[in-house]
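Moderator note: this is an archived Q&A kept for reference. The question asked for a predicted structure of one protein chain; the sequence and the answer are reproduced below.
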Amino acid sequence: MDPTQARRLLDHACSRGAGFAELFVEESRFSSIQLRDRRVESASAGTEFGIGLRMVFGSQVLYGHTSREDTGALERLVEELAQARPRHGQDLDLGDPVTGRSAADSSKAGRDPSDPQKDGRLAILRQADEAARAVSPRVVQATVGIMHRRTRLTIFNSEGLEREGDRTWTRFNVGVVAEHQGVRQTGSEAPGEGRGLEFLDGLDAIGNAKAAADRAVRMLDASPAPAGEMPVLIGNGFGGVIFHEACGHPLETEALRRKATPFAGRIGELVAHPCLTAIDDGTIPYAWGSLEFDDEGTPTTRTTLIENGILRTFLSDRIGAAECGVPRSGSARRESYRYAPVSRMRNTFIAAGESSHDELLASMGDGLWAVRMGGGSVNPATGEFNFAVEEGYMVKGGVVRQAVRGATLTGKGHEIMPRIRMVGRDLAMAPGTCGASSGLVPVCVGQPSILVDPILVGGRS
């Protein structure tokens, strides 16, 4: 969009009573290819363009969007929002305008896709497919894919901000199904980074495929998991999904604004075991959830949410920071121009501790080692969660025993955190996709191995 046209529209929005107005201009190009059972199941590519307009009246936010860029269509959008403005509302001080320069963009586009055959993607997928199947004759299905997305955006606002961004994501995924005597188990791996197809140059696609297949095959011979409260050692990397879902969302100002968090009014209080420090960092180079600046143009930060068990702050967008009285963290995010931004996580993780893996096992005594977590559900308002264990083992007297399947972990995030009594040194991160009121956004979850005593384990009673 021409800056002069943008300024004219923003001035028009303010003349219609808005105390703050913003334009979010976006063009995204995306492609994906997926193999299932050695055949190309899907291959797609496309382009999406649109403009989002946000107008703030007092404490009320109105949002609209269009895929047209002509002045007439945009002026009609301004008028539609202005006519829907509330008649009453308390003024909201959004604080100082966004100023200064962002750090160097760590997610600039690298190599873009051309043709799956020519750029090597198809060869990588076929190699991964064959590697998964070669693990065992019990592997009955393998699905492998690569996705790539590049987004160019410009943000204008009525305070004079004009900021351009170029964001890129590439991800590989493999899912394996193993079967024996009517029992089926799955394994998966899905590494990704915030850069172009050069990510694939250093990718061990064969190793990831073998790891997924090995896990699925091992779990075929596992025993049903016992049920009951017990110590649980949760593995590193994707194990952080429990903190993300059960604790991370309640630490966003979007939840605090709606009074839908058990952490309301608890800044400065001990909310977790003193061994736990939790961080959300949007500045990690090439990480899946990193951004040069957020979707309001605020530079991203490294935000310590919990320090040695004490709640320090919340993740915030501008509206949330103003309403809740916390600093801005550069956490305003949205899936696309179709959504207004709200506070969201970026790369959220429990920081590394001091314990070795052997120390964690020895300290737990008898319990469950949840090596890898699977899917689950959570109620953000209460922090109640229920997550499946994709790979687990029973531990007796600090010694790993038989593999078990069908285990689930159940509890409330704010109640579990004080029970995390040991934190390992083996911090790892895992990419994923997070859904909330502003759509689906790329995030990382992470943690070292952590020992929780106890957690309610669902299984065979």
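Archived answer notes: The two ends are 62 Å apart (CA to CA).
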